[in-house]
Automatic annotation (TrEMBL):
It is an enzyme of class 6 (ligase). It comes from Microbulbifer variabilis. This is DNA ligase. Keywords: DNA damage, DNA repair, DNA replication, Ligase, Magnesium, Manganese, Metal-binding, NAD, Zinc. It catalyses: NAD(+) + (deoxyribonucleotide)n-3'-hydroxyl + 5'-phospho-(deoxyribonucleotide)m = (deoxyribonucleotide)n+m + AMP + beta-nicotinamide D-nucleotide.
Amino acid sequence: MTKQSIPQSIRERVEALHELLLKANYQYYVLDNPELPDVEYDRRLRELQDIEQQYPELLSPDSPTQRVGAEPLSSFSEVRHEVPMLSLDNAFSDEELLEFDRRVRDRLNSKGAIEYACEPKLDGIAISLLYRNGILERAATRGDGTTGEDITQNVRTVGSVPLRLRQETGVTAYPAVLEVRGEIYMPKAGFAELNRKVAAAGEKLFVNPRNAAAGSLRQLDSRITAQRPLELCVYGIGLVEGASLPEEHLATLELLGQWGFRVNSEMRLAADIQACIEYHRELGDKREGLPYDIDGIVFKVNSIPLQRRLGFVARAPRWAMAYKFPAQEEMTELLDVEFQVGRTGAVTPVARLKPVFVGGVTVSNATLHNRDEIQRLGVMIGDTVVIRRAGDVIPQVVSVVESKRPKDARVIEFPAHCPVCDSPVESTPGEAVARCSGGLICSAQRKQAIKHFASRKAMDIDGLGDKLVEQLVDEGLLHSVSGLYHLDLEQVAGLERMGQKSAQNLLDALERSKDTTLPKFLYALGIREVGEATARNLARHFGSLEVLMAASEESLQEVEDVGPVVAHFVAEFFQQSHAQEEIEALRQAGVHWVVEKVAAEEQPLAGQTWVLTGKLETLSRSEAKDYLQRLGAKVAGSVSAKTHHVVAGPGAGSKLNKARELDIPVMDEEGLMDMLRQRGFEI
């Protein structure tokens, strides 16, 4: 079929579909505010595929259909970068960053402050994207900075990579030739889902999102890459021909955003180097809450003319510096494995490590999770292992350096009997966790159950710390949770580091804890899989403890967010005679609560989704969440078009920006306090 024989209406329809799908991609990946429903997007994409199949002449490189992948390559070809892709020098302390600023000002002979663009340093793969007349022509890896690999076929499959640049009314025209530099990475949620699929297939898990992204981009079969949850975020430009760009770095990135690229919403302009240091600390605090991994912040002189004056050294620009966060992964030696018993009897293997500094602290222990994880890792005592610590997350062993395995490495033997009470260790079919069968006979389980019961989000017993619980159990003074309310002043005062005053303070705290709420009491009981939200849903649904205790598994599944597994655990717990006896003993001891009369559908915030962001100064985050949930609201961790309100405290960043973009009402903490007072809370 010749070009002349293609009806004009078909040509116009193809162009209309291109524009529709291009706009939908921009809204989804750049604005994070999709207007076109997924089902409609899929329908229009299928329509375009059908037309291109019927009229192959209309298939163009920038067609949205060209993201599904093509036939496998035999190898990657080399690409020479027109403008070298240099690496960055690194700073690891405030002093090193201040020294960088001093060098910049000295070279510029400037006594005034220098403005810096601040960008999160995404932990992904650096790439170069070359556009000619607005169409993606080539994508390449950094390689050695001068020569990289042509991965165009793979990069085309990444949804956030524009195949054609946007050119709409009011948008500055793009250059005839434009090379864009950016990072392709794998978001945390996508990485977790990918590893779930990999584990289900019995394959080796990826160690971290960066490795997963690198492996995905270097697939010779781009159809595999198309199935991976990759994203692009741009941070600069290389070759430009046919147009002038802004004289400021951040203004250039904003322009790239108009042309269809995703630019990081956490970017900032810092007035001087002290503002850079403050931003580094602020983003470091937010690091774990970001949906992607970052390993530092890149500070760049914002003025492009000043960048040109500063120039380059052999391998890095003089106008940029990466201030790295403490490493989250390190190698060390696995010295031994011990087994700990938790509140529900779970027997957890704990790696004893040669101490190593990682994630800002010295780590000597790490979790190995369970028997299946030990087998998956293939880890042995004596191995050199890679451990990871992210923020407050418990350090974990993520891989083994098999090439360093010593000849005397020992197999890890999982215990057949509890290391605490010698009861048999049992495994339930379908569960990876092995459990001690001893129940409260096991002092380890008893200690953990009491610690959980006394915790702040449960009964909130001030002064009953972990060490005191262990003393009470070890001394034979405490055999159950209800026993807390029968402690004797003289016995407690006689414990190590306790006296009459400390003992009386503890007994007073125990007395105060008797006045609680049904959700807190349910959470404090430590029922498997029943967290704060589930406890609140159960209390709302059934209204009283008596009705809940008599509920069947079928009726339990009518509760929001309660499925068959949780329903089984709840029903099983309340059917146990010792649980019933313990609940009765607690109530006889005086533990009580007021039955909430308000039904869920009558709650003023029922059906609404709220988001908390930034630092709250009067309420804790969990307290604010608790108040909102008691009013019927769902408290989410991210902002979307379905969010009703955002509460923003100092330090609020991307969530606040997104709320403003979506025109979602925002209030500060004082506004939240006023609203809660109006709803009857005494704060």
